[in-house]
From TrEMBL:
Residue ranges of WD repeats: 214-255, 256-295, 296-335, 335-369, 464-486, 487-526
Protein name, as recorded: F-box domain-containing protein
Keyword Signal: no
Organism: Thamnidium elegans
Region annotation Disordered: where it falls in the sequence: 410-459
Keywords: Repeat, Ubl conjugation pathway, WD repeat
Amino acid sequence: MNCTTKTPTYCYRHSPELIKSRNKEDETTTHLQNELNLLPLTTQHQITSIWSTYQTATKDQRLLILKGILSSSCTPQLSYISNTVKPLLRTDFTFIFPPEITKHIFSLLDASSLCAAAQVNLHWKTLADDDTLWHRMCEQHINKKCVKCGWGLPLLQKRKVIRVQKRPATEDMCEEVPAAKRIDQRRPWKDVYSERLVVGRNWRRNHFNSRVLDHQHKSGITTLQFCEAQNILITGSYDKSAIVWNLETGQVLRRLEGHARAIRTLQFDDTKLVTGSMDNTLRIWNYQTGQCIRTLEGHTDGVVHLNFNCRILASGSADATIKIWNFQTGECFTLTGHTKVVNHVSIHKDSTTLVSSSDDGSIRIWDLERRCCARILNGHMAPVQTAIPSMTGFLHTFFQPQLKKAKLLIKQRQSSPSSSSGSSDEDDTMTMTTTTTIPKFPKRRSSNSSSKSEDCDRSSEQVIISGSLDNTIKIWSLETGECLQTLFGHVQGIWTLAYDKLHLVSGSHDGSLKLWDIESGLPMHCLDGHTSAVTAVALSDTKVVSADDKGQIRIFDFGCTSKSPV
């Protein structure tokens, strides 16, 4: 004869799993027992008997007992019941819904809500601290603006232990190191997010530690570049020397001398440093030993700017020409077209396009395969000191005027009552207009449909950001050459600028250093300290390093935890 044991059924409140997870329930039971122990033994038995009778009663009997107790209760007892019952009626959905639905609900929360949820109890903390949730949070915010909240968090470089090929931060290099190389995957993603949240908040609130390096150059500084991963800063000066600094301590590691005139430009990677001078030459150095490896000659006037990648080196000169040097073949060819000093050259990521700016007030886009000028951008009213093309994945709201009008028409059409019918001639005309004027922008991957729809308000169109002595910063379409927006804020000419996916920093002849929101083009803060023209600037995820024509070097560190006196 088989005996089947009936599995006991529990209501939601008395589910063993729920009781086990609720520390407050245990505290209540303990408190009741302590109060009961203070009573006479006879009274204890009577109360225990009442509780036992209620627990063993059926549902209808329990209801009848409660009605009798309520009818016999006075106002103080009824008030206690009213205050006590409400929190007891709350339901923990995590014990009712399947785990997949619970996880999806938590995935819809922002970072603050997840942190608040983690404080409910241990069970909720386990759910809210789930690594996949925080990985998704990092993907939404790190090195880009979140389409929901508008916040962006910086990438943080790890101090390099093993040498790998990376491009350091420089005043005109905007390619970033892939996130996979910079983030320690063994760390919980919540810790990664928290670390970057502190830095991101410092950028927004203008909280930084500022320090000035000892004067080592005998004259004004013309150029600089730094790399946090390698912990070095290299500066070039009118005094004909380049100095290698320890970025963290400010100690001078090495002084490189050999040029006959001022060093106007430099760039380094893991193995070499290239400098350009007004003595018409470029020099390639081993900056770890101070040895000059090679001297490149060819310009007939001073070298004002250079830029290189793994394949080619481009140099712009006061002789109004640009030379392209091939590292692999040794070949060199010249690009002509500018009529005055070439102030800036920048190789686009594909090595087939070059962007240059000049004292003639123009920006030129060059086709390096055909070795000719593909487009000329005119709009600045004075010499253009710098022009930098955007990096891959750079999202912005600098739309073309036609696109802005088309988007406005779409919003008006969607909000109008007649938009649902779509039968009028006016609707047909509007449809044709918006279809022909809106380019299709690449879509970013997103975890939900709302993010995808909001992404339509941002463009991944490649742009050029330029700074000029006409006091303005302009954003240009790399594809069409159209000026998309002009940024105003400086009262004197702009000598230098640098930007990444979150910030833009610009230095002016009046000694001001301005920090801009790169997505909207709005000024955020002014970094004070310089008393003369800011001639060089570079930024990373946590720092802005700037120098002026009096030889002062300032480091603004946003990775700090306390506010700096400004």
